[in-house]
UniProtKB/TrEMBL annotation:
Keywords: Aminoacyl-tRNA synthetase, ATP-binding, Coiled coil, Cytoplasm, Ligase, Metal-binding, Nucleotide-binding, Protein biosynthesis, Zinc. GO terms for molecular function: ATP binding; cysteine-tRNA ligase activity; zinc ion binding. GO terms for biological process: cysteinyl-tRNA aminoacylation. The gene is cysS. Its EC number is 6.1.1.16. A motif ('HIGH' region) lies at residues 31-41. It comes from Pullulanibacillus camelliae. GO terms for cellular component: cytosol. This is Cysteine--tRNA ligase.
C-alpha cells in the first residue's frame, strides 16, 4: 500500500515521499481572526486535521503548523467599528476559533504562529527580497516585482499575459507594474503599526505566511495546504516570495479543499447565508458535523443544507447504534461461537481494515473510508444477531471502530439508556396514548428510536429491543 497525494501544483496524484524519512513538515493557512469562523473555514480545519491524523496513523512524525492572521484590513475595520484594539479582537476570536474547532475534534496545531509575533522575521524577509532585486520601496510601501519571478502563475496555471487582463494600479498605490503585489503597507492615521526601514506600517497578507514557514519549518516543506480560494493569489504569491528568496521549492505538495455551498448557492454575507460553526455545533452534535464534512472527498465541493445534515445525522446514528450495541452485548455475551466462525470474522475484520487503509491511501478518500465503516457495521450486526457471540470477536469489532474513527476524528460512543430508563419512557408514552396525547406519544417513540430503541405494539403490550443497523 502506497500513499498517493493529489498535488495542486502538478494537477495529478503523486506518491508521497517526505523530505526526511519518517517525518512530515506541514503548514496549513489558518483564519483571519476578526469574527467567529463559518462552516467554510471549518472545512480545511477538519480536512487537514484528518490528513495529519492519517499520516500519524501510518507512522509519520508530523510537525503541524497553522497560523493566525491577527492583523489585516478586516481586523482594522472591525477595530474601528467596535471601538476595540486590533489585538484585543484577535485574542478573543483566536479563543473562539480554538473552542469551535476543538468541538469538531480538530487537534491543536504543534505551533500556532501569529503575524504580530513574527514581525521581525517578516521585515527581514522583505529586506532580503529588496537586496535580491525582487522587491522595491515606493512611497513608504514595498512591492514585489511579479514579472521578475519566472515561475509566477504555475500554481494557478495562469500566464503573465492572462493576469495582465484586469490588473490595475489603485489610487494611492505607487507600483512599477499593475501585477506587483504589496509586501509592506504604510500605516494610515490611527492604524496599528510597526517600525520598519520604510517607515511605520504593517505587512501585506501574503508575506506573513512565507516568513512563518521559513521560521518554523524551513525553506522547503512537505505539505502546504488551505482552502481552494487561497490558491490564487495568496499561495501563488507565497511561492513567488519564498522561491525568489531561497532559490528552492517552497513545498513539495500543495493541497486545497473544495468550497462549501449553502443550498446550492455560494456562501456570502450579501446573501445572508453564512453559517457560523459557533451556532452550528449548538444545533447538531459536532461529531455529526465532522462526519458530514468527511462524507465528501476533501477536494470536491460540498452542498450544505439542513436536510442534508439531518440525513448525515441519521447515517451517523446507524453507526453509533451499532457501536453502542456492541458495547452492550459485550457486557452480557458468553463465548459460545465456534472457533471456525470466530476465525472467519477475524479475517473479515482484517480485510475491512485493509480496505480502509487502501481508501485513505488514495488521496485521503474519507468518503470511501466511511463506506467501509458501514460495511463493518453490517458484519458486526451479523455477529450480534446470533444467540450468543464471542466476547473476543465483539471486542475486536469495537477496537476496529475505535481505531478507524480515531483516524477520521469522530466518536461513536454515547451514553446508553438503561433498561429502567427505557421502561419509564414507555410508561409515559402509554399514559399519553390513553389521554389521546398522540403528539407526546410519537415524540417519545421518535426519541427512543434515535437512541436505537425500537418499540413494537403487540396485543400483549409494548415490547422493545435495541436496534441493529440493518433493521
Amino acid at each position: 500500500m502506497t500513499l498517493k497525494v493529489y498535488n495542486s501544483l502538478t494537477r495529478q496524484k503523486e506518491i508521497f515521499k517526505p523530505i526526511e524519512e519518517g517525518k512530515v513538515k506541514m503548514y496549513v493557512c489558518g483564519p483571519t481572526v476578526y469574527n467567529y469562523i463559518h462552516i467554510g473555514n471549518a472545512r480545511p480545519a477538519v480536512a487537514f486535521d484528518t490528513v495529519r491524523r492519517y499520516l500519524e496513523y501510518i507512522g509519520y512524525d508530523v510537525l503541524y503548523v497553522s497560523n493566525f492572521t491577527d492583523v489585516d484590513d478586516r481586523l482594522i475595520n472591525a477595530s474601528k467599528e467596535r471601538g476595540e484594539s486590533v489585538l484585543d479582537i484577535a485574542e478573543r476570536f483566536i479563543g473562539a476559533y480554538k473552542e469551535d474547532v476543538h468541538a469538531l475534534h480538530v487537534k491543536e496545531a504543534d505551533i500556532h504562529p501569529r503575524a504580530t509575533e513574527t514581525m521581525d522575521e517578516i521585515i527581514l524577509f522583505i529586506e532580503r527580497l529588496i537586496e535580491k532585486g525582487y522587491a522595491y520601496e515606493s512611497g513608504g510601501d514595498v512591492y514585489f516585482r511579479t514579472k521578475r519571478f519566472n515561475g509566477y502563475g504555475k500554481l494557478s496555471q495562469q500566464s503573465i499575459d492572462e493576469l495582465k487582463v484586469g490588473a490595475r494600479i489603485e489610487i494611492g498605490e505607487h507600483k512599477e507594474d499593475p501585477l506587483d503585489f504589496t509586501l509592506w503597507k504604510t500605516a494610515k492615521p490611527g492604524e496599528i503599526k510597526w517600525e520598519s526601514p520604510w517607515g511605520e506600517g504593517r505587512p501585506g497578507w501574503h508575506i506573513e505566511c512565507s516568513a512563518m514557514v521559513e521560521k518554523y519549518l524551513g525553506n522547503t516543506i512537505d505539505i502546504h495546504a488551505g482552502g481552494q480560494d487561497l490558491a490564487f493569489p495568496h499561495h501563488e504569491n507565497e511561492i513567488a516570495q519564498s522561491e525568489a528568496l531561497h532559490d528552492e521549492t517552497m513545498a513539495n505538495y500543495w493541497m486545497h479543499n473544495g468550497y462549501i455551498r449553502i443550498n446550492n448557492e455560494k456562501m456570502s454575507k450579501s446573501l445572508g447565508n453564512v453559517i457560523l460553526v459557533h451556532d452550528l455545533v449548538r444545533q447538531y452534535d459536532p461529531n455529526v458535523v465532522r462526519f458530514f464534512i468527511q462524507t465528501v472527498h476533501y477536494r470536491h465541493p460540498i452542498n450544505f443544507s439542513d436536510d442534508l445534515l439531518k440525513g448525515a445525522e441519521q447515517a451517523f446514528d446507524r453507526l453509533r447504534t451499532t457501536y453502542n450495541n456492541l458495547l452492550h452485548r459485550l457486557e452480557v455475551s458468553a463465548d459460545l461461537l465456534d472457533a471456525e466462525t470466530t476465525d472467519a470474522y477475524k479475517e473479515t475484520i482484517a480485510e475491512l481494515k485493509a480496505r480502509f487503509i487502501k481508501e485513505m491511501d488514495d488521496d485521503f478518500n474519507t468518503a470511501n473510508a466511511i463506506s467501509v465503516l458501514f460495511d463493518a457495521a453490517k458484519e458486526a450486526n451479523k455477529v450480534m444477531q446470533a444467540d450468543n457471540s464471542s466476547r473476543d470477536l465483539l471486542q475486536r469489532f469495537i477496537d476496529l471502530f475505535d481505531e478507524l474513527t480515531g483516524v477520521l476524528g469522530f466518536e461513536l460512543k454515547q451514553a446508553v439508556l438503561l433498561d429502567e430508563e427505557i421502561e419509564q419512557l414507555i410508561e409515559r408514552r402509554e399514559a399519553a396514548r390513553k389521554t389521546r396525547d398522540f403528539q407526546t406519544a410519537d415524540s417519545i417513540r421518535d426519541a427512543l428510536k434515535e437512541k436505537g430503541i425500537v418499540l413494537e405494539d403487540t396485543p400483549q403490550g409494548v415490547r422493545w429491543k435495541r436496534a441493529l443497523v440493518n433493521e
